Amino acid sequence: MVWPNRYSSLWHMIAAPVVWAVHFCAVYGGTALVCARMDAPGLARIGIAAASVVALGLIWWIGRRAWRQWDYASRANRTHGGPRAEDRREFLGHSAWLLAIVSAIGVIFVSLPALFIESCL
Amino acid sequence: MTDSSLHDPPRSAAELDERQPQGQWPPSEEMLAEPVPSDIQEASKERLRAAWKTPTGIRYLSAVNNSVIGKWYSLTAFGFMLAAGVLALLMRVQLAVPENDFLSSDRFNQFFTMHGSAMMFLFAVPMFEAISILLLPAMLGSRDMPFPRLSAYGYWCFLIGGVFVLGSVLFDAAPSSGWFMYPPLATEDEGVGSDIWLLGLSFIEIASIAAAVELIVGVIKCRPPGMRINLMPLYGWYVLVVGGMILFAFPPLIAGDLLFELERSLNWPFFDPERGGDPLLWQHLFWIFGHPEVYIIFLPSIAIASMVVPTAAGRPIVGYSWIVLSAVGTGFISFGLWVHHMFTTGLPAISLGFFSAASEAVVIPTGVQIFAFIATLMVGRVTVILPTLWIAGAVAIFTAGGLTGVMVALAPFDWQVHDTYFIVAHLHYTLFGGMVFPIIGGIYYFYPFITKKKMSERLGRWSFWVTFIGFNVCFLPMHLTGLLGMPRRVWTYPGDLGWDWLNMISTVGSFVIAAGILIFAWDLLRPKGRQTLTERNPWNAGTLEWSHDVPTEAWGARSVPFVTSRYPLWDQPEIVERMDAGRFYLGDAPEGRRETLITSAVDAIPQLVVRVTGPAWCTLVAAAFTGGAFILPTFGIYGPAIVCGVLAIATVIWWLWTATAIIPDKVMKDVGLGLTLPTYVSGPKAPGWWAIFITMLGDATAFAGLIFGVFFFWTARPDFPPDGAAHASAALTTTAGVLLAGTWLSTWFARGLHRAGHVTIARALLIAAPIMASGGAASLIGAVWFPGLQPATHAYPAMMCALVVWSVAHILCGAIMQGYCLARSLAGRMLPEFDADLWNTTLYWHFQGVSGIVTSLMIGLVPRVM
After folding, report:
1. Where are the transmembrane segments (chain A) (predicted)?
2. Mean pLDDT of chain B
3. Do the Cβ atoms of B228 and A112 come within 8 Å?
């Protein structure tokens, strides 16, 4: 069986936190711009909501692929400490999946202030 | 960063087939089991010993081996830590009683500034690098770091810069505006203090980045064959994450330092609100560095815990993937916290909310690793070895610091305690628990590896309990002192505010800490000549560094092992015996050269055998001249500083010319176990290419910091750009953009044509390229010069000129690299099939081409749109 390249890629492993980082920059930078230049908190909040939905969607997709790569159901050994290519593949999948969860929590946390704070002050 | 097999398809038709690895991979069990005749063992040992011999006498200073540099580095950092600790004690004496006049206010300011700066820049970060340089190759069964001379250069830069910065305190000339150098206090400061901080520490930051590059390449490319990424010691994961963090955290500070020094020496008003500047820009750039810095300090120390805990528990770590998640997740999220140092600066509440939320989110990955350690200890059979005691103390203290961290991450709470002793207590709990205790635990743990002797169990316990008790006596009351309202950084206080007894207790505690640390220092440094050597694996650990040779040998690993487990010493029972016999890879040095293996990034498939460089003076000379170039401008001595800069560049060129990308006598080499590897590769398989790639990522981050500055001013200031301001010339910025694109493409084409054998055309392109680069640099200067942008009048022209300064320096550096490739080609040191220099130069220009074009747009187009 030929695996896709991403099964042996560190870049794919960190895809979810990269989404978090882009989301964070977009939310912070966007709010700063909209508040400083237009003083339109409503617009900022809508933008944050949209960015968060997109980010969570992407993270969900990354996490789903990682879940498949981890292949949780098929194996009894879940320490991924063996020397075979499968161990490496599952390890990278497992780590990517965990990172997707943390990234999703991060995105949700960071978008929460926009739910409660309604002004640019 | 992907790889799958021994053989990759050649990237071009010209890539010779015999340059691919050939032979047996992975090795069979029969090959591994075949004994090595004892006469061959002895002869190859002799040859290896000769190749790796550490120079003696005065030439000892020219050593570059990781074990030597690592020792110097860590002892120097420890020395700076003790010095910074003495400053703290003197401050505590001053604060012991109200209205004290033991120290003058100015001296007190110098002391707290230097205490913070030295602990951060001269101890915490360098200590991580020092310990990693010392330990990492052994953990990876590698001979040395990939670029030993770079380590040496970094060390000498660190020593010169550290002595300069810390020494200033003896001449009453030290910086005195706090370790974060806030403008306007620091920009308006008279005297040389702020310049010493800026230039001295920039110099050290560059050394830190050099070490980070080396460590990342070490982890990615120097793992032993078979050690796939899922088998790497957790320490390696942490080094990888922290190295990456340094690359993205330090450069914004370097960009900030550049702006700051331009304001100090040329009066360009980046941080002066009267002329369109904004002091908050510095705070942003500083804390984009400063908060990840906290994790840059914390993660390596917790990495030590991740090595000690499985040994103490006598079993593999529980939740390896979870700890990797923790390291990587913390690494990312720690970049979203910086504004929590700026909660009181009046930013919009909603922005504060983002950073408060991220500050709470980072607790999740940070907590996960602590739980993984506890789980490991719970399911293992714990032997309470001395290092475990320090690690346990660390966890206790760090958890307390983490809890107050959760409190101050909430903006309303922070408004109450901002700039009070509550923060002092919080940060010392995190740093002692997250750094000092695990490091000392780690030194007790690794001491037998480093010196082949043991430290004293009894002194270690005394030191622990004295330090632990002293620490809590000193810092626990500070929470209350802070809640009672005592501000930080005051040199004295009136006696009727209820702070007296708390301060007195803290002062007593601080001296108890000092006593504890001194016990440790004595135990560390006391002569151990008559003590017997340690056994080889005193803690019965499972990782490769405990296959070390007792008594010591300079070769690192006797032979580079084939690894199939996370804990090879536990799971591969014959591995040490086979390493000793030279059964594995590179068991001999028939040419008498220092060599190490380079393997693929993810699966550690052998790719290359590289010659690593040996002892040299050029590193010391280059560091001395670099030091001159940074230190002399502090005192306004610009002429000699420029001479030093030129000599530093010349020394580095000489160093590269004589020792790197040497065309080998044989293109392939038998490395043992039936495997033949190339001795020269260029492009993404070569460690040098990775080093350029990683360096340029950091460099691009610094550039992004400057771009951030432009947009920051645009959002924060209504007068950016001011009405009717002169803009950079559109025609000249366009010319610059075109010329820079031209030089980039010329270099790129030169690489392809050169590889295909069209050497003459490639050389012609390499002549044209630096001419176009110089033309591009000249056009950029002209673009701001001719329309008469006056950088001293307003932050807008200053920012545009700063971008030009940054770009021109980089373009000239790129032009030197193009000229270097041309010279190498003309001298017959670079041939179509041996073209690493040209690959690396092209990679540099991929980054520089993009950033040059962005600069042209930023100064020529963007302000007109704004």
Report:
1. 12-36, 43-62, 96-117
2. 91
3. no
